[in-house]
Amino acid sequence: MYDVLEKQFANYFAKADRTKGVTGENLLQLLECRIDNVIFRMGFANTRRGGRQVVRHNHVLVNGKKVNIPSYLVKKGDEITIREKSKEIKAIKESLEARERHGWDSWLEVDPKNLKGVFKEVPSIPDLQLPIEEQLIVEFYSR
């Protein structure tokens, strides 16, 4: 779902396990904070894989700095912007138009006219509405 390889996923699990709180929730929150996922959630890409491509092709700025690593973890308050040169890309415009019809998540603030947004807060599990039983993931990786 998040297009993460096994070793990288195991590393996310280890980080989630070390963090205070419920491990399964921490894991999903870490995955949701990846820049490729945030780009997808903001509507700058149709899929997470598309978000990964937007990031890899240097179309994204985080707090005014170029970011081209899809696993970059966004923090609360970070401003994500599509670079000025990239604002005319047809795929980005089309996916943003489609996302505007559905609306955005409450933990994101998006300005579709300027192609930028703010990561207001780390999402809570009920906000995500994902068909994932994180407890099963925790049980599998805990062995």
Descriptors:
143 residues; alpha+beta; Structural Genomics Hypothetical 15.5 Kd Protein In mrcA-pckA Intergenic Region, Chain A; 7 helices; 5 strands; globular
Task: Outline the secondary-structure elements.
Elements: H1 6-18, H2 23-32, H3 35-42, H4 48-56, E1 60-62, E2 65-66, E3 79-82, H5 90-102, E4 108-111, E5 116-119, H6 125-128, H7 134-141
- Cα end-to-end separation: 22 Å
CATH C-level? Alpha Beta
Rounded to an integer in angstroms, the radius of gyration calculated over CA atoms is 15 Å
Low-confidence stretches: none
Order of helices and strands: HHHHEEEHEEHH
Work out the helix count: 7
For the largest sheet, list the strands in their spatial order.
2-1-3-5-4
Alpha-beta content class: alpha+beta
Oligomer: single chain
* CATH fold annotation: Structural Genomics Hypothetical 15.5 Kd Protein In mrcA-pckA Intergenic Region, Chain A
Question: Globular, elongated, flat, extended or rod-shaped: what is the shape?
Answer: globular
Number of domains: 1
Looking at CATH, the homologous superfamily is RNA-binding S4 domain
Per DSSP E runs of 2 or more residues, the count of β-strands stands at 5
What's the helical proportion of residues?
A: 40-55%
CATH-level-2 architecture:
Roll
Q: Main beta sheet, described? A: 5 strands, antiparallel
Strand fraction:
5-15%
Mean pLDDT: 90
